[in-house]
Write a structure and sequence with these properties.
single chain; 318 residues; alpha/beta; Rossmann fold; 2 domains; two-stranded antiparallel sheet; 13 helices; 13% strand; binds 2-acetamido-2-deoxy-beta-D-glucopyranose
Length: 318
Amino acid sequence: MLLLLSLTIVLAGSTAATATAAAAFRHQLPLNGGLTRREISINTTDYPALTIDIPIDHYNSSETRTYKNQYWVNARYYRRGGPVFFFNSGEQNAHPLVPYFLYEAAGPSSVMTMARRFNGLAIVFEHRFYGDLHEGSFPFAMNATTGMAEGGYEAYKHLTTEQALEDPVYFAHHFEPPGLRRHWPLLNPKHTPWVWLGGSYPGIRGAMMRVRNPETFYATWASSAPTEAAVDMWTYYAQAERSMMRNCSADYTHVTNYVDSILTNRTATEVGDLKYALYKAVLSGPRGQTPSYVNRTEAEGLSKASVAGYLLLPLSFY
Ligand SMILES: *[C@@H]1O[C@H](CO)[C@@H](O)[C@H](O)[C@H]1NC(C)=O
Ligand SMILES: *[C@@H]1O[C@H](CO)[C@@H](O)[C@H](O)[C@H]1NC(C)=O
Ligand SMILES: *[C@@H]1O[C@H](CO)[C@@H](O)[C@H](O)[C@H]1NC(C)=O
Ligand SMILES: *[C@@H]1O[C@H](CO)[C@@H](O)[C@H](O)[C@H]1NC(C)=O
Ligand SMILES: *[C@@H]1O[C@H](CO)[C@@H](O)[C@H](O)[C@H]1NC(C)=O
Ligand SMILES: *[C@@H]1O[C@H](CO)[C@@H](O)[C@H](O)[C@H]1NC(C)=O
C-alpha cells in the first residue's frame, strides 16, 4: 500500500503510473493474521455504499457525463447543528475501511471519536478512480482483467489533482444523504462547518483544500501529510526497522537483501521460483494452507515490484 502511495503521489497524472498502480492494486493481498473474531466476521456487504453523481470533468462545460462516487455515512452521534467530519480514504478501495473507520471494528477511530465528542456526522468518501473494480468510484467502466479503465489511457486525463480536489467540494455542496432529508439545507457548508480528516496523501489533500476552498472546509486534520515527494522513499521503512528488536530487524534486513538480489541479478527461472514462493507464502496465511488456485503461472505474471511489496505485509499498516 505504501509503495502504491509513493507512486501515486510522485507520478500523479502520469498514465503509466496509474496503470502500474492499478495492476499492483489488483494483487494487493490481505493477511488474516492478528485479526479479532469481530474483524474476521466482517462482511462489507453489511456496509452498503451511498452514491452521488459527480461530473467526470469539472472544468469542461461541454462534458455533461457524470459518474457515481461512493460514500458512507454514520449519523449515530449526529445532533442537529453539529459539524460534519469528512474522512477521505485516498488512493485505495474505501469499502474495507468502513467497518474500521465508521463502526470502529478494531477500536476507536479518529472520525468517530470526533463525531462522538462534537455530535457530528461522520462520512467516508472514496477517491475518484479507486474502489472495488465492480462497484468503486470509477468515472469509466473498469476491465477486471487488466485493472484499467476501458477507455484506455485517455480515461486517465480525468485523474488529476484538480479534478480530485473538486470532487469533495462538489460533494459538500450537493450532500443529500437519504434518511437525513430534513437536515439537507442545514448540512450545506454555508451553514455547517465541514472538517476534513485524512492521513498521508489525503492529509496533503486536506491541507490543499484549506488553502483552495476555505469556504467549504472549515478545518483540516492533516495527519502525516507528506511535505516532499520522493521516488524511492526507503527511509520510510527505516523507521519500522528501527523500532524492531535487533535480532528481528537483522532477519528482516537479510530477507530484504536476499529478495532484492534475486529479483535484480538472477535468471528468469530463479526469479520465477522466488515469485512463486512468496506468492504462495502470502496467500497461504499464517497457518500455511495453500489455496488450490495458487499456481506458478499466475505468480510469474506478477511484477517484481508487487512481489517485493509482499515484504511490507508483516509491517501491517493498520
Ligand atoms: C456476505 O453477505 C452476503 C449477503 O448477505 C452473502 O451473499 C455473502 O455470501 C457473504 N460473504 C461472506 C464471505 O460471508
Ligand atoms: C470537452 O468535452 C467535450 C465533450 O466530451 C470533448 O469533445 C472535448 O474534447 C473536451 N475538451 C477538453 C479540453 O477536454
Ligand atoms: C479486458 O482486457 C482484456 C485484455 O486486454 C481483453 O481481452 C478483454 O476483451 C477486455 N474486456 C472487455 C470487457 O473489454
Ligand atoms: C530476540 O530477542 C528477544 C529479547 O532478547 C528474545 O526475547 C527473543 O526470543 C529473540 N528472538 C529470536 C528469534 O531470537
Ligand atoms: C547485483 O549484482 C551487482 C554486481 O555483482 C552488484 O553490484 C549489485 O549490488 C547486485 N544487486 C543487488 C540488489 O544485489
Ligand atoms: C493458474 O491460475 C489462473 C488464475 O487463477 C488460471 O486462469 C490458470 O488457468 C491457471 N493455470 C494453470 C496452469 O493451472
